[in-house]
Amino acid sequence: MRSLYLLAARWVAPAAALGLLAACSNNPSTDSSGNPTADSAATTAPAADTMATAGPQPIKPTGPAPAWAPTIKPEMQAVMETLASLGGKPIETLSALEARQQPTPTDAVMKLMQQNNIPMPPVTADTMSRVLMPGVKVRVYTPKSGAGPFPVIVYYHGGGWVIANLDTYDASARGLSEQVGAVVVSVAYRQAPEHKFPTAHNDSFAAYQWALKNAASIKGDPARVAVAGESAGGNLACAVSMMARDKKVALPKHQLLVYPIAGYDLNTPSYQKNAQAKPLNKAMMGWFFDKYLRSAADGKNPMISLVSANLKGLPPTTLITAEIDPLMSDGKMLADKLQAAGVPVKYQNYDGVTHEFFGMAAVVPQAKEAQAMASAELKSALTK
Questions:
Q1: Where does residue 369 rank: exposed (0-12), middle (13-18), buried (19+ CB within 10 A)?
Q2: Contact 359, 106 (CB under 8 A)
Q3: CB contact at 8 A, 114 and 50
Q4: Catalytic position from the list 231, 241, 270, 305
Q5: Among the options 25, 254, 355, 375, which is catalytic?
């Protein structure tokens, strides 16, 4: 991984809606006994010479809408143009190690923010890390203000079960902590192809159980725990809810699923319509499945194919999708299947935006809307 991940406001607090959250990639640690130490994640400001006195500037694209996204919003297009300028190679042509080195949408948002003089908000959460088992770590975000015990959100990052890490999604976790007023337990599960299915799923459930058992020790309330995740992390969050139900473990109070991977069918309407989309396309999804699954049979497992699973008894759900995303049909189908199973669902699709838009509130207005909605749903579900 890079020595520095600049995390571009995957979540932005209402009071600092144009701010930026960033984090160094120095990994947080534990002592020799496995006890948590103060975490090294911190904010990193843009260079002073990039900050003009004119203040923040509007985000605008430089060219026409691309053929693969004729309805793309201007701010979203500017992010995709900037990402293209960073020179990344197609993920599906690379090894997992090479893919983990590529520029990300987060890098593109950071560059846009630097170019347009958008400042960062203050840090509002303290962090520490804990190793749960070999290869599995959590980073715990605790609000600096307010009196505990706080509600707890167990958060699973995206990346197709192959790429990305805690640092890549640091700002999402910080934003959840701030906006919901919650302790966030961000989970670093083992990844493929080094660790095939169902490793990431089992690690994710183990981390959820750890959060339940140790909530009091991290200023959390074990009776108010939710799960959340983006993309592959959305898949993991829903799978954790299913495992909790089936294993008679306390269910999450709510689940936030943001454009989750919910099926193994690469020929849905949105896969066909958005086969060449960016930053996620059909070929990349095939690459992710190939890296994580042991065989095609795993694709039909209900932990992967959520739309074919027994969804009865799952917690109330907030489900968000994006129009320009191969996974849009997956998410809509999952929302419909959850409702048919009797699960209360708040579903919202956002037009003109792509996969990964949710973390771009600093520059994409639809992300601000999505974050506000998700925060409100989580906060309501976790209020005593």
A1: middle
A2: yes
A3: yes
A4: 231
A5: 355
pLDDT in tens, 21-33: 333 233 333 333 3
- pTM for this predicted structure: 0.88
The catalytic residue among 107, 170, 325, 330 is 325
3-state SS of the chain is CCCEECCCCCCCCHHHCCCCCCEECCCCCECCCCCEEECCCCCCCCCHHHCCCCCCCCCCCCCCCCCCCCCCCHHHHHHHHHHHHCCCCCHHHCCHHHHCCCCCHHHHHHHHHHHCCCCCCCCCEEEEEEEEECCEEEEEEEECCCCCCEEEEEEECCCCCCCCCCCCCHHHHHHHHHHHCCEEEEEECCCCCCCCCCHHHHHHHHHHHHHHHHHHHHCEEEEEEEEEEECHHHHHHHHHHHHHHHCCCCCCCCEEEECCCCCCCCCCHHHHHCCCCCCCCHHHHHHHHHHHCCCHHHHCCCCCCHHHCCCCCCCCEEEEEEEECCCHHHHHHHHHHHHHCCCCEEEEEEEEEECCHHHCCCCCHHHHHHHHHHHHHHHHHCCC
Residues 160-205 pLDDT 10s: 999 999 988 887 888 889 899 999 999 999 999 999 999 999 999 9
Cα 259 to Cα 274: distance, rounded to the nearest angstrom: 14
Q: How do strand 125-133 and strand 255-258 relate by DSSP bridges?
A: unpaired
Q: How far apart are CA 257 and CA 378, in angstroms?
A: 11
Could you tell me the residue ranges of all domains in the chain?
4-28+38-47+56-381
Supply the pLDDT for residue 54: 59
Q: What CATH number does the domain located at 4-28+38-47+56-381 have?
A: 3.40.50.1820
- Asked if the model's pLDDT at residue 15 lies above 90, the reply is no
Average pLDDT of every residue of the chain: 87
Whole-number pLDDT of residue 57: 84
Active site (annotated) includes residue 380: no
Whether 355 is a known active-site residue: answer: yes
The burial class, CB within 10 Å (0-12 / 13-18 / 19+), for 44 is middle
Cβ-contact 254, 315 below 8 angstroms = yes
Q: Does the active-site annotation cover 231? A: yes
Cβ contact 316:238 at 8 Å? no
